[in-house]
Structures are given as structure tokens and as C-alpha cells.
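User: I've been going back and forth on whether these two constructs are worth ordering. Before I decide, could you fold them both?

Assistant: Sure. I'll take them in the order you sent them. The first construct and its C-alpha cells:
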Amino acid sequence: MTAPSMTEQGRATRGRIVAAAAALIGEHGVSGTSLDDIRAATNSSKSQLYHYFGDKHGLVQAVIDHQSAVVVGAHAELLEAVQDWRDLERWVDSMVAAVEQQGARGGCPIGTLAAALADTDERFRTALNDAFESWRAAIGGALARLRQNHLLAADADLETLTTTTLAAIQGGLLLAKTSRDSAQLRAALEGAIAQLRAHGVPDKPRPRRR
């Protein structure tokens, strides 16, 4: 059932189930989360689950869509404000702060789903790749503004720099999750920023005073 054909109450119920399923899957994984687990956590019936999602595959797809919207949406909002290096550093600080608030647990919801599903279901892989492409577009937009503001060199390869930045995020989040240490994420992100700055526009020498 598509969202437009639902009542407001139906959309709220579906959203509540998806959010709860996302939390359970984030904690126990897709294979470790059953429809009965989700039904118990949400006090919903089997008929409701099948009504809104059809089967577990449909529910997992809804979780992918939910996590993609939440994660990429949050990053896109922060990245839209990037105009200079300090703004980019604020984005880094926000990621580290979020990991610290969670006790360095959970990692990246999209990355975790991709690790579990990309090799087992082509539709899931495509949906997760779309999420990463949207994330890349948000990062690339921020880097493009840095170049427009003459902070990145005109010949900087934004596509490659975007990829290395997103890879640093994913790797840093995984290391932080396994070590329970947000410093791992900060080190990865600061390395990415250093790589970006290496492609920055050198400061023009000031004329000497006579």
C-alpha cells in the first residue's frame, strides 16, 4: 500500500512500525530480527504487518528507505551550509558528537545494511547504492561551493575527493563502532579534510611594504 492511499492514522502506524523495525534491525541485524520480534515491539498484529508491507522483504525495503532518508537527509542539511573550511569542520564535529552521544555504537545504518544485504538481494543493493549516491551528491555539492569560493583548486577532481571523503566516513564509523572510540572517526575525518586541503588554493603572497 502506498502512502498516498493511507489515512493519516495509517501513515502514522506504518511510520511507527518502520522506526521500531529500523531500531531492532540496527541492533540485531536483518537475519536476527523476525516479524514476530517487530510485532511484539510495536504491539501490532500480523495482519497489520502484511497489510502495510506484504512480507519481511517489504518491511526491510521500508527500513532501507527510512534509514536512507534520515541519514542522508541529516547530512544533506548540514552540507548545504558549507561555504568554507570552518563549515566543513563543523560538519565533522557534528558527526563525532553524534557518535559520542551514542557511545560509539551502531555505526552507519546505511553501511550496516549494505554489508548485510548488498550481496544477497539486488533490489536492496540498488536501493542502498542510491542512498550512497545521494550522500555523494550532498558532499560533492559542498566541495563544489568550496571551489566556487576559491578554496579548492579549479582542477581539483571533485568526484574522487567526494569518494575518498565518503569512504573516510564509512571506515571511521566502522572503526569507532568496533573500538568504541569516537577518536577513530575523528582521525579518519581529519585525514579526509587534510586531503581536501592539499587540493586547496594556496594563499597569495602579500606584497612587501616599501
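The second construct, handled the same way:
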Amino acid sequence: MTDPLPEVTVVNIDYWATRSIELAQLLATCTPEGGPKAIPDPSGRPVDPEKIAVVVSPTDWAAYPRELHEVLAGVAAAGGKGPGLAAGAIAPLNERLTLTVDEAATLLGISRAFAYEAVNRGEIPSIRIGRRILVPRVALARMLGESGTSGG
């Protein structure tokens, strides 16, 4: 039986949103065998329960500091918008059902601007949730004629 993937609680994510490289280095030390279970805000501010995120599979995120920054900035901006709303859980890119337009552009090998143009023209399948534009992985794979498996 394999150990479950660790989860790490990141405290005061607005602090970490601007320090994603440093946070990625800390996340790299989180393995099923050990490492921190919580990463505090070293500035000494008190814990704000609406600015906490649980990072699932932290070692996967450690390799993507830019994407980590984007997600943390988005979660930090959305935190506290509803009653009892904490910042939330952050799943690794390979486990999410959707991609950002930037992530889809990278996977497709096109520029960010071209990807947004293609979304607006309906050439890249997308959904809107509030102001966010997301690209469903399944729809993208179907568009490319893939069976949903990676490689090849």
C-alpha cells in the first residue's frame, strides 16, 4: 500500500502569493515520509482563517512556481467573499478538470494572446465562471482527437 499524497496547509496566502518561488522550495520538502504539514506566514501576522489554502500534492506544485503564483493570487483575491468561506484547496495541474487559458496555450504551444483570440472565436472550448475563463481538459482532448491519455 502506498502512502497517501501529503496535504500542506498554507497560512495567510496573500503573503505567499508574491513569494511563489520561496513557497515552491518549501513545498518540495513535503513528502509522504515527512516535511511540514503547515507553512506559516513568517511575517508574524495572526492567522486569518479566510486566507488559508490546503495544497494537495505539494511536491507536484513545487515544479511550477509561476502556476503556483497564479493560483495563490486568484485564491487570495477570492478569499472571504462569502460567509464562512476559506480560501480553499489547490489541486495539482494534472488532477484539475479545467485549465486556465494560459495553461491551455502552453500545452498547445501557442501564445497567450492567440489562445484568448481562439477562445473568443470558439475554436478552443471554454466555460465562464464569473469573470474566469476555463478550458475543460476533456473538451480540449476531444478537440485534439485524443483519447484522454497523455503522450504520443
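Notes on the second construct follow. The domain at 97-144 is CATH 1.10.10.10 (Arc Repressor Mutant, subunit A). The two ends are 30 Å apart (CA to CA).
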